[in-house]
Amino acid sequence: MFVHCGVLKVGFRTALGLPCPFDPQRANPLDLQRPAAEFKRINFIIPHL
């Protein structure tokens, strides 16, 4: 499972004047502790971008 935590800045959204609908409260990698414990056979990949 590939998971991105944090705000992903997409340049074309800014260029087009589109709003940024990302909720930073949903960007905490610590929130993955429970699903990682429940699904031990799944590898969670959290890149540091």
Question: What is the gist of this entry?
Answer:
The chain is 22% helix and 0% strand. By secondary structure, the chain is mainly α. 0% of the residues are buried.
How would you explain this protein's 3D organization?
It is built from two helices and no strands. It is elongated and about 40 Å long. It has helices spanning 11-15, 33-38. The model has no long low-confidence stretch (mean pLDDT 83). The chain has one domain (1-49).
Give the helix level as a range of percent: 10-25%
Alpha-carbon distance between the two ends:
16 Å
Question: What's the number of helices?
Answer: 2
Strand fraction equals under 5%
Q: What's the number of structural domains?
A: 1
What summary fits the major beta sheet? none
Q: How many extended strands?
A: 0
Average pLDDT over all residues: 83
Unreliable stretches, pLDDT < 50, 5 or more residues?
Answer: none
